[in-house]
Amino acid sequence: GNIDQPIIRDPSFVEEADYVVMESTYGDRNHEPPESYTESLAQLINEVFAKGGNIVIPSFAVGRTQELLYFLREIKDRGLVKSAPNFTVCVDSPLAAEATRVYSGDLHGYLDEEAIAVLQGGDDLFTFPGLTLTQSTEESKALNMDPSPKIIISASGMCDAGRIRHHLKHNLWRSECTICFVGYQAVGTLGRKLLEGAQVVKLFGETISVNARIESIKGISGHADMNGLLDWLGGFESDIRHVFVVHGEDQVTDSFAETVTERFDIPAFAPYSGGCVDLATNQILSKGNPIVKKKVEKPEKLRAESAFNRTVNAGKYLLEVIMKNEGLANKDLAKL
To answer: Which residues contact 35 (CB under 8 A, 6 or more apart)?
Structure first.
C-alpha cells in the first residue's frame, strides 16, 4: 500500500516468507511529490463552479470515494471554495454509500493519527453540509436534470460500467464541466481514452463530443510506487526463494521483476496468463501467454460523425465570437 494517505495508517512490513507474490501497478515509476490535495481540489472546484459547470469524478466505491469525502470535508471546514462555499456533493453509488457507512463505524486499530485527531475533535470523517448519498435509479437520473453546479462522485473508477457512464453522457459535451480522475486508468478503458485526449466517445449507442475539461489529480493512489514496493520487499529478513510479480501492465511487470533481481539478487518472475511454477522445486514450468489486444478499427461512419461534430462545435464557437461583437462599428465588423 501507499504511505502518507488519509484515513488508513501506513502498511506494516512482513519479515518472513518463502515466496512473495506482489503487485506492480506503479513498478516502473514513482508518484509525484506529495501536494496539498485539498488546495488543488479546492482550486479546481472554484474554477469550475465559477463557470456554472459540474465536476464529475469517476471513483472506486471502496477506499477512494471515502478519501475524497475526507478531503471535501476539510475543504468545507476551511472555507477554501469562495465561488460556492455551500457547494453540493453527490455520491451516486449504492456500494460507495454502503462502504462509507462501514468506514464511519469502529475503525479502531486501522486509522492514522490525523483521522484519530478528527474524531477526537468531535467531527465525523465523511459527513458535512451539502453531502447527498443517492440510492435509487430515479435519484441518480434527477442529478442530471438539476441545472445547479455540483460534484458528482460515481463508480466505476475507470468508467467502463456503472452509473458514471450516464453522468459522462450528460456532462462530457458541456465545455463548462470538468471530468476529474483520481485513480489509475488501465489501458483500453474509457477513462484511459479520455485522459489520452479522445475527442469523441460512444456511450449507450450515442456519439458524444468531449468538450469538457479533463483533469487528473496525481498522487492519490492506494498503490505504492516503485520505491515504496522496493522498500516493502526490503523489509523481509528471511531468504526469499522467488518473487512473483503480478497486477500491472505487461511491460511494467517485466521491468519490475528485473529491478527486483538487480536490487536484491532474488529470482523474480512476471507470469503471463496460464503461467505455471513448481514451488517444491522452485522451477518455472511455463511462462504463459501474453494476451494481445487486437486493434479495433473505427467504422467509417464513426469517423465521419466525429469530423461532423467537430465542425459543428467549431461553428458554434465562431457564432459565439460573432455575437460577442454585436454593436461594433461597421468598419470593425468588416475587419472581423
So the answer is: 218, 219
Looking at the predicted structure, is the pLDDT value of residue 333 above 80?
A: no
Count of CB atoms within 10 A of residue 291's CB? 9
Beta strands in the chain (DSSP E): 19-23, 55-58, 88-92, 131-134, 150-154, 178-181, 200-203, 206-209, 213-216, 242-246, 268-269, 276-278, 283-286
pLDDT for 130 equals 92
Cα(195)–Cα(330) distance, integer angstroms = 44
Cβ of 300: how many Cβ atoms within 10 Å? 8
Give which of 128, 141, 154 is closest to 55, Cα–Cα: 154
Q: Would you list the DSSP string of 99-165?
A: HHHHHTS--TTTB-HHHHHHHHTT--SS--TTEEEE-SHHHHHHHHH--S-EEEEES-TTSSSSTHH
The residue with cell 463552479 is 49
CA dist 315 and 15 (Å) reads 64
- Measuring CA to CA, which residue among 204, 215, 202, 214 is closest to residue 309? 202
Q: Measured between alpha carbons, how far is residue 101 from residues 69, 96, 106, 143 in Å?
A: 12, 9, 10, 22
Q: Considering only CA atoms, which of 55, 54, 42 is closest in space to residue 83?
A: 42
If one counts every other C-beta atom within 10 angstroms of the C-beta of residue 269, the result is 18
Average pLDDT, stretch 72-99?
92
pLDDT surpasses 60 at 295: no
Does residue 1 register a pLDDT over 70? yes
Residue 171: which pLDDT band, with cuts at 50, 70 and 90? very high
Residue 297 has pLDDT above 70, yes or no: no
Residues in the chain: 336
Decide if pLDDT at 299 tops 60. no
* Cα distance between residue 307 and residue 63, in whole Å: 40
Please provide the distance, in angstroms rounded to a whole number, between the alpha carbons at the two ends of the chain: 58
